[in-house]
Fold this sequence. Notes:
Elements: H1 20-32, H2 42-54, E1 58-62, H3 65-76, E2 83-87, H4 96-100, E3 104-108, H5 119-123, E4 130-136, H6 145-155, E5 159-162, E6 170-171, E7 174-175, E8 182-186, E9 199-203, H7 206-216, H8 240-250, H9 253-270, E10 277-278, E11 286-287, E12 293-297, H10 305-314, E13 321-322, H11 333-336, H12 364-372, E14 373-376, H13 384-402
Parallel strand pairs: 2-3, 2-4, 4-5, 5-8
Antiparallel strand pairs: 1-9, 6-7, 6-11, 8-9, 10-12, 12-14, 13-14
Amino acid sequence: MADPITLPSDQDASGRSLGAEEIALVEKVIRSGTLTSTKGPVVKELEKRFADMIGVRHSYACSSGSAAIHVAVAAIDPEPGDEIVTTSITDMGALTPILYQGAIPVFADVDPATLNVTAASVEAVLSERTRAIIVTHLFGNPAETHAIKALADRRGIPVIEDAAQAFLAAEAGKRVGAIGTIGCFSLQQGKHITCGEGGVVTTDDDALARRMRLFINKAWPYGESGPDHEFLALNYRMTELQGAVALAQLDKLADNVAIRQCNADRLTAALAGINGIATPVIAANAEHVYWKYCLRVDANAVPGGPPALAAALKDENILSAPRYIQKPAFECAVFRDQRTFGNSRFPFTLARSEAVDYARERFPGTYAGLRDVLVLPWNERYTNAHVDHLATAIRAHASALNRTLPEVAE
């Protein structure tokens, strides 16, 4: 009897491309004795190469993807009570920086097929208080950023791209992270490349670049004459140790993405024609880089929907995630109960009532998308055998669940 197939995991070495190259660079940094990026060369080299790769003039490394969002919002410098439009389906680390800068997250609905915001859903929630728009490229599938950027440009509003899950993704031939005003990336454990925790911000705007660089460094302008701590800011620096791992990983990124895409194409072809199972929807001008591979499961055809299919796949040692997140971000306590700084509720005390109206009927795409999505595990160490195992299991269990439907009398 053949051994059961175990899928590589991005939480350990089985699903990560870490190896001798990272070890060699980390050893070099340790032997140098310089572990801070204010003195060492490694993070600076990472920043230069990352900017070249994305196609922007400026790139700065920081301590996490959440820090990257915070750096971007701080660079925009909203006034207390200003609004920043964002998505209802995202990690909390992409939302709390908005609150820390005294601004109000205003949630746009999403396309239920992609779980990304659209130009139409963003436009529906813009107001005279809108200070910026955050566009998230969920799962590595580019949102319609050019259309959103055109809308924002007409109103003089900057666009921040949350590309944490979208390394090397592109729309209309341009890398995400270079389409909007600022791009934000994450180097967390499970991303396309990793140094455990880490982030990068990108921009072509010289003034915003300086402010981002300062915000990462407690607003201290290293290398400039007459330095001072110019404004309220934090220490969000990346260490040279993290930078060494990230720099070695950068050399592997293109291959990692290509493997993910090739395997995704194989899986999509293998799943064609299964009743109740829909594969990823990708715009004709977009390049998906598959941080995760997501199915949409129609409960009318597959009884029990994503949770039932996920439970069946678990018997095959496939750990998938129905819903991705269990509830929209605005249902979490920090928004629902406005739990922020002590009992102050700040900055929600400055919000318009419409900005914090989280009525279910305002978010049909959000609830439909979360109801139907099933997120499959995915990483660059998959082989054809792993992909075929996924396809066979999905087809078999979706068909078995289909057969549980009651017969319709003629």
